[in-house]
């Protein structure tokens, strides 16, 4: 018997009292990230995939405390940019645990990573275009390379995050074997890679299986070329990407990770001797470890809907505006009744359909529409769940809104790990060039 599939954490599982205390102390909007849960999620992945290399896709949450937790849990780091490599190094990942996935990499990023590789020669660069291989060679790089393949099949929660099959990512599969053999003449080719997309749920397992099967086939073809002239490539691993979904809707079933692992192993088999399976989940590690706390400041009944105005918007959590993503929202109460009485509002007010909207001047700036919530009153605290992945990471300063603060919970302690930005932070990169530093154009 394999490991059981432990349930995902729901927004209702968080202690309302604890969250209310954090909001009172640190103000809102506030991200709360539970490092204990991050550690548990790493364990769940390692239990389900005991014989695979598990790499955390850093882009899902790049906070230092999260990276350190993931490193201590034994996962490697998969980085999408020089900035992410820099953060992973600072969090203590050595080159042997660093994987840099170069997607149309800016020259500056390649220069930086090639520099890092001089000191950390065990670092691996994953490359999805022959141009990128050429650009690495031009910089004198001859180290570890993994070849990213476009598997021709994708999956994910939204078309904008379905990478497999998108021409932007990877070398087309019909040219992958040849490109890998060519690469092996210039670099130490150690792996092949494909990523289907992000937010794969149980309904999309067929696509996942298809991708994994194609990667297994490619690994066998590289190990034992049909063409008598082709020399075999000794791979260390086949990386089948990340994308493992988490349930956002409160009643959605959790992805059956042990079943996904079994299907993955079966689809990739038989791997050539000495070749390991690798995965690189991001969302699964951090999503249900985070909530975003936001305070109701406006309640507006209109003929069509009830609009609940809050202090967090698309600048704090972009996913609903960008992907129509669903995030569970729980009203923790604490506000005053809208009749102006001083009595704290009870949270069992009858559920009402509402639109929760932020402070940004765009119609799309909503956290939910037509959602049934325990009728919010001014001053109520709302907890937006499953906000730990691609939450703070996609936050921005549009409308000159400073980014929110983040606290990390760790074994009964709490620490501010990202301070709230100030109005002063908004202009730190700005220069008064119009007046003082003008040069002839
Ligand atoms: N590996 C590669 C090469 C990737 O591009 C990604 C995600 C991952 C791994 C990790 O995927 P995950 O396990 O987190 O699904 N901002 C979007 C998600 C974009 C994901 C991009 N690539 C969202 O909020 O849904």
TrEMBL record:
<keyword id="KW-0457">Lysine biosynthesis</keyword>
<dbReference type="GO" id="GO:0009089">
    <property type="term" value="P:lysine biosynthetic process via diaminopimelate"/>
</dbReference>
<comment type="similarity">
    <text>Belongs to the Orn/Lys/Arg decarboxylase class-II family. LysA subfamily.</text>
</comment>
<feature type="modified residue" description="N6-(pyridoxal phosphate)lysine">
    <location>
        <position position="59"/>
    </location>
</feature>
<comment type="function">
    <text>Specifically catalyzes the decarboxylation of meso-diaminopimelate (meso-DAP) to L-lysine.</text>
</comment>
<comment type="pathway">
    <text>Amino-acid biosynthesis; L-lysine biosynthesis via DAP pathway; L-lysine from DL-2,6-diaminopimelate: step 1/1.</text>
</comment>
<feature type="region of interest" description="Disordered">
    <location>
        <begin position="332"/>
        <end position="351"/>
    </location>
</feature>
<keyword id="KW-0028">Amino-acid biosynthesis</keyword>
<feature type="domain" description="Orn/DAP/Arg decarboxylase 2 N-terminal">
    <location>
        <begin position="36"/>
        <end position="287"/>
    </location>
</feature>
<feature type="binding site">
    <location>
        <begin position="280"/>
        <end position="283"/>
    </location>
    <ligand>
        <name>pyridoxal 5'-phosphate</name>
    </ligand>
</feature>
<feature type="binding site">
    <location>
        <position position="390"/>
    </location>
    <ligand>
        <name>substrate</name>
    </ligand>
</feature>
<keyword id="KW-0456">Lyase</keyword>
<comment type="subunit">
    <text>Homodimer.</text>
</comment>
<keyword id="KW-0663">Pyridoxal phosphate</keyword>
<dbReference type="InterPro" id="IPR029066">
    <property type="entry name" value="PLP-binding_barrel"/>
</dbReference>
<dbReference type="GO" id="GO:0030170">
    <property type="term" value="F:pyridoxal phosphate binding"/>
</dbReference>
<feature type="binding site">
    <location>
        <position position="323"/>
    </location>
    <ligand>
        <name>substrate</name>
    </ligand>
</feature>
<dbReference type="InterPro" id="IPR000183">
    <property type="entry name" value="Orn/DAP/Arg_de-COase"/>
</dbReference>
<dbReference type="Pfam" id="PF02784">
    <property type="entry name" value="Orn_Arg_deC_N"/>
</dbReference>
<dbReference type="InterPro" id="IPR009006">
    <property type="entry name" value="Ala_racemase/Decarboxylase_C"/>
</dbReference>
<protein>
    <recommendedName>
        <fullName>Diaminopimelate decarboxylase</fullName>
        <ecNumber>4.1.1.20</ecNumber>
    </recommendedName>
</protein>
<dbReference type="InterPro" id="IPR022644">
    <property type="entry name" value="De-COase2_N"/>
</dbReference>
<feature type="binding site">
    <location>
        <position position="390"/>
    </location>
    <ligand>
        <name>pyridoxal 5'-phosphate</name>
    </ligand>
</feature>
<feature type="binding site">
    <location>
        <position position="362"/>
    </location>
    <ligand>
        <name>substrate</name>
    </ligand>
</feature>
<dbReference type="InterPro" id="IPR022653">
    <property type="entry name" value="De-COase2_pyr-phos_BS"/>
</dbReference>
<feature type="binding site">
    <location>
        <position position="283"/>
    </location>
    <ligand>
        <name>substrate</name>
    </ligand>
</feature>
<feature type="binding site">
    <location>
        <position position="319"/>
    </location>
    <ligand>
        <name>substrate</name>
    </ligand>
</feature>
<feature type="binding site">
    <location>
        <position position="243"/>
    </location>
    <ligand>
        <name>pyridoxal 5'-phosphate</name>
    </ligand>
</feature>
<feature type="active site" description="Proton donor">
    <location>
        <position position="361"/>
    </location>
</feature>
<keyword id="KW-0210">Decarboxylase</keyword>
<dbReference type="GO" id="GO:0008836">
    <property type="term" value="F:diaminopimelate decarboxylase activity"/>
</dbReference>
<dbReference type="InterPro" id="IPR002986">
    <property type="entry name" value="DAP_deCOOHase_LysA"/>
</dbReference>
